[in-house]
From TrEMBL:
Record bears the keyword Acyltransferase: no
Chain coiled-coil ranges: none
PANTHER family on file: CYCLIC DI-GMP PHOSPHODIESTERASE PA4108, CYCLIC DI-GMP PHOSPHODIESTERASE PA4108-RELATED
Membrane-spanning parts: 12-31, 37-53, 58-76, 88-109
CDD domains: CHD (cd07302), HDc (cd00077)
One MF annotation (Gene Ontology) recorded for this entry: adenylate cyclase activity
Name the record gives this protein: HD domain-containing protein
PROSITE patterns to which the protein is assigned, alphabetical: GUANYLATE_CYCLASE_2, HD_GYP, TPR
Source organism (scientific name): Pseudoalteromonas denitrificans DSM 6059
SMART domains: CYCc (SM00044), HDc (SM00471), TPR (SM00028)
A Pfam family per the record: HD_5
Protein keywords: Membrane, TPR repeat, Transmembrane, Transmembrane helix
Residue ranges of domain Guanylate cyclase in the record: 202-325
Length: 675
């Protein structure tokens, strides 16, 4: 059967011609209706197109047409079906045309099919080859991947182990460095930015009085435990005020302010830290008294040592600070003249008088002064002030003597005797206040720091009538959070700024008859509004000139930084926090951080914005003098007209400060602000 099929396929062309001849002959001779069977010829033509191709199919069709036409020519009567001869040939032509067309189309389609099949067969063959290659490659890749993963896993394990060992080693090194060096010093060392130089800084020395005697009377573990507790308390304060703790010398501490990071207000930071250290020592009830000495100057600062290095300060100012600490009275803070010049506007300070001929106050003299003070409280007069001045002078307490001579002159400014005695005392103290310092040729002026000045007493900023009316009320309401505010305010010498802002903001809130809780929130927000300034680089806080765009971007961050810090400290009052966040929003919408405008800005934030701007202008800054209060208000009113502040609120604040509005005008303003 297969042989026959193969033979027929090989000789199909000859067989095709034979079929056509037989078909034509049979149809012509044996079929009576020739035209009806002409469509029979489609069968061999289609077969030819399918098996032989288009060319052979067309030739077969032409051959069939010729054969049928020849028979029709010689035997036309056999094709007639009641039609004319011309019609007969027309039919044959139409039939022949369709026959050729059928052969052509089928042949073309067959050719395309064969080409596609051939191409598909070729592609299938290539695909099979590629599949085999892919399978082989995949197997090799899987084998390689497994081996690679194994090696990677081993290498990763080794790297992680090495990393852990490095991290452990790194932490040990850092712990060792941080235990012996300041974190800022370590960071600058790693970044290779630590320099040896001469720089103006403040040096603090402190030590405990009678600690040696205490250590001899107690067990070693008790002494070390108490000493470490004391050092922990002092260290916390020193670091809070950005000190570099140079070294511990037994119970003594040496620290630098302004190095290695060059804080410009190093003198303020050092003195404030010293006062807080004395306060903390008393608060913790340690069984000792502490002496603190501070000097300001230009020592050499840098790393010293070979294998064991230490960042320290060297020079005359270091020796001076140490000598001052030795001369300091236990429980006090003593500073030199250079430090005094930088901090005198912010602290109550007294000159220290030391003389070889200084009288020691006897017990009898002390009792006499005590009796005269009782009389002074009963009747303040020129005579009583003069008596106390002379007694204090006799006892060597020259500052108090000066105070009472001043009181006497206030009562009787024309009293020539008192003027002469006061002048003589001034000349006397001018000579003896030069304190001899061991190791120095020239004696030094020394000063005792008493306390931080209360800025609320400044009548140039707060009228006396407002102070008297509100001081006690506000002091009872909220304790001023100076422990978290003062370290920030020392950075730009704005000590007391927040206290005034809160005080004045509370007064405005009270005049507006706001609820008690709202007034309390505004007061607290005024106190804490600028706590976020710690994020601003300190050189920008003290910049004398204008700031560029990038520097302003740093400034704009501080309201939200304040929120972050306060929340981390546990403050949860949403209303108060919102005031702090929005107190730099401008009335026209050009402020920050949200760009709020008009009444969309919380009323408390608008109040704090006004009082903060006023306080900034009327307070002294290292880079400019203070403004007079009327001039400051005039300037701020211009800003209000330009859209920075609430204009009605600014006008109300002016009337509160200067009491220059009638009751009707004042009530009208209150309504405008509240609406």
């Amino acid at each position: 059967m297969l042989i026959l099929k193969s033979y027929l396929l090989r000789n199909f062309e000859q067989l095709f011609i034979l079929i056509i001849l037989l078909s034509v002959s049979s149809i012509v001779y044996f079929i009576p209706h020739k035209l009806a069977f002409l469509s029979f010829f489609f069968i061999p033509i289609l077969l030819a197109a399918s098996y032989l191709g288009t060319k052979q199919a067309i030739l077969g069709a032409l051959f069939s047409i010729i054969m049928v036409s020849v028979y029709a020519f010689y035997f036309p009567q056999k094709f007639y079906v009641n039609n004319a001869e011309l019609d007969l040939f027309a039919r044959i032509m139409v039939w022949g045309g369709f026959l050729i067309l059928s052969g052509s189309v089928v042949g073309y389609l067959n050719k395309q099919l064969k080409e596609k099949l051939l191409e598909a067969s070729k592609m299938s063959s290539e695909l099979n080859e590629n599949t085999e290659l892919l399978n082989k490659t995949t197997s090799e890749l899987i084998e390689f991947t497994n081996e690679f993963d194994k090696k990677v896993a081993e290498r990763t394990c080794n790297l992680e182990k090495s990393k852990r060992e490095i991290e452990v080693h790194k932490h040990k090194i850092e712990d060792a460095l941080y235990s012996t060096m300041d974190a800022a010093v370590v960071k600058l060392m790693i970044e290779k930015r630590l320099r040896t130089e001469k720089r103006r800084i403040s040096i603090l020395f402190c030590d405990l009085v009678s600690f040696t005697l205490y250590s001899e009377k107690h067990h070693a573990e008790v002494v070390i435990t108490d000493l470490n507790n004391y050092l922990a308390s002092m260290e916390t304060i020193l670091l809070l005020y950005n000190a570099h703790i140079d070294k511990y010398v037994g119970d003594g501490i040496m620290a630098e302010f302004g190095a290695p990071i060059d804080y410009e207000r190093h003198a303020l930071l050092s003195v404030m830290a010293a006062l807080k250290m004395q306060e903390q020592l008393n608060h913790d009830n340690f069984p000792w008294k502490m002496r603190i000495g501070i000097a300001t100057g230009e020592p050499i600062i840098g790393l010293i040592g070979h294998k064991r290095q230490s960042y320290t300060a060297l020079g005359d100012v270091v020796n001076l600070a140490s000598r001052i600490e030795n001369l300091c009275i236990p429980g006090e803070v003593t500073i030199d003249k250079d430090t005094y010049e930088e901090i005198k506007d912010y602290f109550d300070v007294e000159s220290i008088y030391i003389s070889n001929n200084k009288n020691q106050m006897s017990q009898a003299l002390a009792k006499e002064i005590e009796a005269e003070l009782i009389l002074w409280q009963q009747e303040k007069s020129v005579k009583q002030a003069s008596i106390l001045a002379m007694l204090y002078e006799q006892g060597g307490q020259y500052n108090k003597a000066k105070d009472f001579y001043t009181y006497a002159l206030e009562f009787d400014p024309t009293n020539s005797d008192i003027k002469i005695k006061f002048a003589e005392l001034a000349l006397k103290t001018e000579h003896i206040k030069e304190v001899p310092i061991k190791g120095r040729i020239k004696p030094s002026h020394l000063y005792k720091v008493i306390a931080v000045k209360n800025p609320l007493y400044d009548q140039e900023i707060i009228p006396k009538s407002l102070f008297n009316l509100y001081f006690n009320e506000i002091e009872r309401l909220i304790k001023y959070p100076e422990d978290i505010i003062l370290p920030v305010e020392c950075l730009d010498a704005s000590i007391g700024h927040s206290r005034i802002v809160g005080f004045l903001a509370y007064i405005i809130a009270d005049k507006l008859n706001l609820p008690d809780q709202d007034k309390k929130d505004i007061l607290e927000a005024g106190y804490l509004a600028d706590i976020g300034k710690s994020i601003i680089p300190h050189h920008l806080l003290n910049r004398k000139g204008s700031l560029n765009k990038d520097e302003f971007t740093e400034i704009f961050k501080h309201p939200r930084e304040g929120l972050r810090k306060l929340k981390s400290m546990g403050y949860q009052n949403i209303s108060m926090l919102e005031i702090i966040e929005c107190h730099h929003e401008y009335f026209d919408g050009s402020g920050y951080p949200k760009g709020l405008s008009g009444s969309n800005i919380p009323l408390g934030a608008r109040i704090v914005a006004v009082t903060e701007a006023y306080t900034s202008l009327t307070s002294r800054r290292p880079y400019r003098e203070r403004w007079e209060s009327h001039a400051a208000i005039s300037e701020l009113k211009k800003h209000a007209e330009n859209g920075k502040f609430d204009p009605e609120l600014m006008q109300l604040f002016e009337h509160i400060l200067f009491n220059n509005a009638s009751d009707i005008e004042f009530k009208t303003l209150l309504k405008k602000v509240m609406n």
